[in-house]
Amino acid sequence: QVQLVESGGGLVQPGGSLTLSCSASRSILSGDTMGWYRQVPGNQRELVATLTSGTTTYGDSVKGRFTISRGDARNTVNLQMNSLKPEDTAVYYCNLVVKISGVGYASWGRGTQVTVSS
Length: 118
Fold this sequence. Notes:
118 residues, 11 strands, globular, seven-stranded mixed β-sheet, 55% strand
């Protein structure tokens, strides 16, 4: 299983920006799907963004504000978050899905807290 470690979370004021990074224990391959999800206590984990072979998808609540991209290192993926709102407050989790013989195998990081508050 691939180990994932998130970093970059913290406290930011509404309207501010924050960049999250996810480091994997191996290089990210072209067929891998990297993603960011978030969760508020008592709620289900919510899709934020995914990246597969250059194709991105975003949750409706973050479209136009967040950008997922590969990092400079071959094993990293970043999430640039702009125009942050209090409702973006959550624990953000990095996710990797590897497909082997048509079966997807998922790995998760432990999460990083993002708090948007004045």
